[in-house]
Design goal:
The protein has 482 residues and is an alpha/beta fold. It has two domains: 268 residues, Aldehyde Dehydrogenase, Chain A, domain 1 (3-Layer(aba) Sandwich); 183 residues, Aldehyde Dehydrogenase, Chain A, domain 2 (3-Layer(aba) Sandwich), CATH 3.40.309. The protein has 15 helices and 20 strands. Helix 1 packs across helix 7, helix 2 packs antiparallel against helix 4 and helix 4 packs parallel to helix 5. The site of nicotinamide-adenine-dinucleotide has 30 residues, from helix 7 and helix 8.
C-alpha cells in the first residue's frame, strides 16, 4: 500500500483503492491508502502547527526547496510521464509534456519567492508613512481533478509554499500515483514536517473533512461545476469564511472564419477537441464555422480524424489514449446518443473500439448540423466529442461563441487582423486564443475563466499571489522627520 503523508510521516490506512490503467484494466498500478476523517484532521492540525514557523522562513529557504523539487521532477520526466500516462490515459508525449510543465512551474515559483514585493506610498496625512505588504494566508487546502494529475497539483502547491503557506493536498481518487510520486519528491526536498501533507481519498470523506475544518483558511479547487458549488457553499458558511478559488468546467468555442488557413484550422480543432482524449477543461467542443468554409472544413476534419490512432496511451504511434474510466466512458456515450436524439448528425467516430488490451477506447466523435441550443452544445461532456455549428458571418459566430454558461477559453482561426482584434476584445472568456488550439497555454501567465468556469482570483504566473497571499496596509507616524 502507498501511504499518505501526514505531519512528516508516511501513514497507512485501513482502506486502500486500486489505481487501474485505463489502457489495460488488468494492470493495477498500485494500492493507495485512503485517509480517514481523523487522519485528515491530523494533517490539518500538523499544517496549522507548522504555519507560524514556515510563514517566517526565509525566501532563500523556500526558493531552494522549490528549485530542488523542480530539478528532480525534470530529471525524472520520462519515468513520471510514463506513470502519468499509465494511470490517466493521455499519450506518452502528453504525459512527459505535463511532467515537464510541472517541473517548470516549481522553478518559476522558486524565482517568485525572491520577487514578491509590496508598495510604499506617501500618506494623505502629514508625517505618516504607508506600507503595503503581502503575507501568507495560513493553511491552504488544495483539491484537484484527475485530468492533469501533476500539472494542476504543481500550479497550486508551488505558489502555496512559495508565499509561506502550509498545505493539505487532496488529489482526485483516479490519479493517486502521480500525486504520491510528486509528494515523495516534495517531502524529500527539505520541508519541515507538517508544511506539506498528502491526504488521498474520496471527496465525500477527505474533501468534506477539509471543507468543515475551521483551521483551513483557504481552499483552491479545480473540478466540476457541481463540486465547485458545494465547495463554495461550505467556504461561505464556514466561521470564519474561507477564501476560495474555483476553476471549473468549460464548453469552449473555436470560431473558424471563411478566411482561415484551412489546414491550420483543422490542426487547431483536432488538437483542441480530441487530444488528451478531449479531457481538458480548455478543450474546444464547439467549432463555430462560417458558411463559406463550412463544408471544406467538415470534409478535412473527417479525413484528418480517420487518420488518428486510438490505442494504448503508452504505445508508440498512438495519437489518442483511452477515456479515463468506465463512468466517464458511459457519460461520453450517453451524450453521443443524446446528440443524435436532438437531431445532430454524427459525421465521424463515436464508436467503442476493441484493442489488444482491455481498455476504455472510444473513437473521437464529430457532430454537424448542431444548434447551439442543443444540450450537446451547452453541457460539458469532457470527452472526445465535438460539435460543428454553422454561422452566417463573423458577427453571428461571435454571438454563438459567447452564448454559453461557461467562459474559460475561446478561440478563433482567421487571417484577418480586424476580426482577430475584435474577437480578442469581445470574447467573453478568461483566455482568448488566435490561430492556436484553445487548449495548451503557457505556465508563467494567468490561467482562469469567467462566468460558470471560474470564481475567485486567477491561478499561475505572478497573479497567483492574489490568492496565496493576503495584503496588509501598515501606517507609521513619527518614523522620520517630515
Ligand atoms: P470533480 O468535481 O468530480 O472532482 C474534483 C475534486 O473534487 C476531486 O479531488 C474530488 O474528489 C473532489 N471532491 C468531490 N466531491 C467533493 C466534496 N463534496 N468536497 C470536497 N471535494 C470533493 O471533477 P473531476 O471529474 O475530477 O474533474 C473534471 C472536471 O474538472 C471537469 O469539469 C473539468 O472541466 C474540470 N477542470 C477544470 C479545470 C480548470 O482549470 N478550469 C482544469 C481541469 C479540470
Amino acid at each position: 500500500m502507498r501511504n499518505n503523508h501526514i505531519a512528516g510521516e508516511w501513514l497507512s490506512a485501513s482502506n486502500a483503492v486500486a489505481n487501474v490503467n485505463p489502457s489495460d484494466t488488468r494492470d493495477i498500478i498500485g494500492e493507495y491508502a485512503q485517509a480517514s476523517v481523523a487522519q485528515t484532521k491530523r494533517a490539518i492540525d500538523a499544517a496549522y502547527d507548522a504555519f507560524p514557523a514556515w510563514s517566517r522562513s526565509t525566501i532563500q529557504a523556500r526558493h531552494d526547496i522549490l528549485k530542488s523539487v523542480g530539478d528532480e521532477v525534470l530529471a525524472r520526466k520520462d519515468e513520471l510521464g510514463r506513470l502519468l500516462s499509465r494511470e490517466e490515459g493521455k499519450i506518452l508525449a502528453e504525459g512527459v509534456g505535463e511532467v515537464t510543465r510541472a517541473g517548470q512551474i516549481f522553478h518559476y515559483f522558486a524565482g517568485e519567492c525572491l520577487r514578491l514585493s509590496g508598495d510604499k506610498l506617501g500618506s494623505v496625512r502629514a508625517g505618516v508613512d504607508v506600507e503595503i505588504t503581502r503575507e501568507p494566508v495560513g493553511v491552504v487546502g488544495l483539491i484537484t481533478p484527475w485530468n492533469f494529475p501533476i500539472a494542476i497539483p504543481a500550479w497550486k502547491i508551488a505558489p502555496a509554499i512559495a508565499y509561506g503557506n502550509t498545505v493539505v493536498f487532496k488529489p482526485a481518487e483516479l490519479v493517486s500515483a502521480s500525486a504520491h510520486a510528486l509528494c515523495d519528491i516534495i517531502v524529500r526536498a527539505g520541508l519541515p514536517p507538517g508544511v506539506f501533507n498528502l491526504v488521498m481519498g474520496s471527496g465525500g470523506v477527505v474533501g468534506e473533512a477539509m471543507l468543515s475544518s475551521a483551521k483551513l483558511a483557504a481552499i483552491s479547487f479545480t473540478g466540476s461545476v457541481p463540486t465547485g458549488r458545494r465547495v463554495a457553499e461550505a467556504c461561505i458558511s464556514a466561521d470564519p469564511m474561507k477564501r476560495m478559488q474555483l476553476e471549473m468546467g468549460g464548453k469552449n468555442p473555436m470560431v473558424v472564419l471563411d478566411d482561415a488557413d484551412l489546414t491550420l484550422a483543422v490542426e487547431c480543432a483536432v488538437n483542441s477537441s480530441f487530444f488528451s482524449t478531449g479531457q481538458r477543461c480548455t478543450a474546444s467542443s464547439r467549432l463555430i464555422v462560417t458558411g463559406g468554409i463550412h463544408d471544406a472544413f467538415l470534409a478535412a476534419m473527417t479525413e484528418r480524424m480517420n487518420a488518428l490512432v486510438v490505442d494504448d496511451a503508452c504505445k508508440d504511434g498512438t495519437h489518442i489514449g483511452p477515456v479515463v474510466d468506465q463512468r466517464q466512458l458511459e457519460q461520453d456515450l450517453s451524450y453521443i446518443r443524446l446528440g443524435q436524439d436532438e437531431g445532430a448528425k454524427l459525421v465521424a467516430g463515436g464508436e467503442l473500439l476493441k484493442r489488444d488490451t482491455p481498455g476504455f477506447y472510444l473513437s473521437p466523435a464529430l457532430f454537424s448540423e448542431v444548434d447551439n441550443r442543443m444540450r450537446v452544445a451547452r453541457e460539458e461532456i469532457f470527452g472526445p466529442v465535438a460539435t460543428v455549428i454553422r454561422a452566417r458571418n463573423y458577427d453571428e459566430a461571435l454571438e454563438i461563441a459567447n452564448d454559453t454558461p461557461f467562459g474559460l477559453s475561446s478561440g478563433i482561426c482567421t487571417t484577418s487582423l480586424k476580426y482577430a482584434s475584435h474577437f480578442k476584445r469581445n470574447a467573453e472568456a478568461g483566455m482568448v486564443i488566435v490561430n492556436l488550439p484553445t487548449a495548451g497555454v503557457d505556465y508563467h501567465v494567468p490561467f482562469g475563466g469567467r462566468k460558470g468556469s471560474s470564481y475567485g482570483p486567477r491561478e499561475q504566473g505572478r497573479y497567483a499571489a492574489e490568492f496565496y497571499t493576503t495584503v496588509k496596509t501598515a501606517y507609521t507616524f513619527g518614523g522620520y522627520a517630515p
